């Protein structure tokens, strides 16, 4: 059995995060000591590592909770259900990447149009573009 501090050290997950995971019912202590300390079974360590790996590939805590339920009840769920979750996550990531590329392009245009001099920001092309919503006009070099 592990106390919360031991589990934290082994996984790099803070005590506060472990308590939050408990509140979300992602991980639950097996027991408590007479003093109220949480005690976790060795399986909790593997469960936390599963959670960490799922977070690293972009799953939310709600998604992880669903994955954990699929993992625990494999007999009543298919691999196809798990695959569908990853396909949904991939689609979400693709949409985010598209949006980030659009944002990067807009920022690059604004940044390239600004000379970045030390003069007053009164005529700053970046601020003007953000205030008016008009496309940035390339200014003459400062």
TrEMBL record:
Residues 1-70 form the HTH merR-type domain. This is Zn(2+)-responsive transcriptional regulator. Transmembrane segments: none annotated. PANTHER family: HTH-TYPE TRANSCRIPTIONAL REGULATOR ZNTR, REDOX-CYCLING DRUG-SENSING TRANSCRIPTIONAL ACTIVATOR SOXR. It comes from the Bacteria. Signal peptide: none annotated. Keywords: Coiled coil, DNA-binding. The keyword DNA-binding applies. Residues 83-110 form a coiled coil. It comes from Corallincola holothuriorum. One of its GO terms (molecular function) is DNA binding. Pfam families: MerR_1. CDD domains: HTH_HMRTR. One of its GO terms (biological process) is DNA-templated transcription. SMART domains: HTH_MERR (SM00422).
């Amino acid at each position: 059995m592990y106390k919360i501090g031991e589990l934290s050290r082994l996984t790099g997950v803070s005590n506060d995060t472990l308590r939050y995971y408990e509140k979300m019912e992602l991980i639950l202590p097996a027991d408590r000591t007479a003093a109220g300390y949480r005690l976790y079974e060795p399986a909790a360590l593997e469960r936390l590592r599963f959670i960490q790996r799922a977070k690293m590939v972009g799953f939310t805590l709600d998604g992880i909770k669903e994955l954990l339920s699929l993992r625990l009840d494999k007999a009543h769920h298919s691999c196809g259900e798990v695959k569908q979750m990853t396909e949904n996550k991939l689609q979400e990531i693709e949409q985010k990447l598209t949006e980030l590329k659009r944002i990067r392009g807009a920022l690059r245009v604004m940044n390239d149009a600004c000379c970045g001099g030390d003069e007053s920001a009164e005529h700053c092309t970046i601020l003007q573009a953000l205030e008016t919503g008009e496309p940035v006009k390339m200014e003459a070099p400062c």
